[in-house]
Amino acid sequence: MDEFLKSAPQLCQSMIKTAANAITCIDTHEQESQEILNDLRINLEKYCRNIEKHKKINELSEEILEVPEENRASLLDNFCENINSFEPNVVNSEYLKEFDDRVAALMKNSGQQTNNDDSVSAGDELQIAQNNINLICPISKSKMTEPMQNKICGHVYDKSSVVSLLEMSQNTRCPIVGCSNRQYLSLQHLKCDIVTQMCVETNNE
Ligand SMILES: [Zn+2]
């Protein structure tokens, strides 16, 4: 994978972090934070489109390289045209989805209403409720200091709790009751849960 695509998750995470800041720090100026959120969403969407274009360029380049050199001319002629006419659909982008989910959860947590609340379906509402931010570690039952999300099942726990579980046994599965993740816990499966982290920090102030 090239550098541009490698940096995508980080950039998206930092946009979510900015959104979280806008919600938690500017909640007295609702309109201002709403404007920031709208701008971020527009930029993230553009960025997601660029990611898809980038993937398309890589794909087309690989196709061209598979063709013997003497036959490449016509393919190269079409190359730019193909790229320019490519209109990626990013509605289902994982990054946009994560952004929307996180913003909805933060809004709910801070008592603000999202713009499109009227159009929220029952399913979405359930999703948002599930995303409501919990600052208590389900393992240690105390307030988290370094919330981490399991990338496989999505459960969130404090890093230190996972470390102590792993110290007791390497063959430990996600400790959340009913979790269908059958893989053993590993720090490599955990990513920093930025939004919960922000809430922990705001909560400490
Ligand atoms: Zn789990």
UniProtKB/TrEMBL annotation:
Any GO BP: double-strand break repair via homologous recombination
Pathway noted in the entry: Protein modification; protein sumoylation
PROSITE patterns: ZF_SP_RING
Keyword vocabulary terms for this entry: Metal-binding, Nucleus, Transferase, Ubl conjugation pathway, Zinc, Zinc-finger
Coiled-coil ranges (or none): none
Domain SP-RING-type: 122-205
Subcellular location: Nucleus
InterPro entries tied to this protein: Nse2(Mms21) (IPR026846), Znf_MIZ (IPR004181), Znf_RING/FYVE/PHD (IPR013083)
Any Pfam family matching the protein: zf-Nse
Presence of the UniProt keyword Oxidoreductase in the record: no
GO cellular component: nucleus; Smc5-Smc6 complex
Gene Ontology molecular functions: SUMO ligase activity; zinc ion binding
Family: Belongs to the NSE2 family.
Name of protein: E3 SUMO-protein ligase NSE2
Organism of this sequence: Microctonus hyperodae
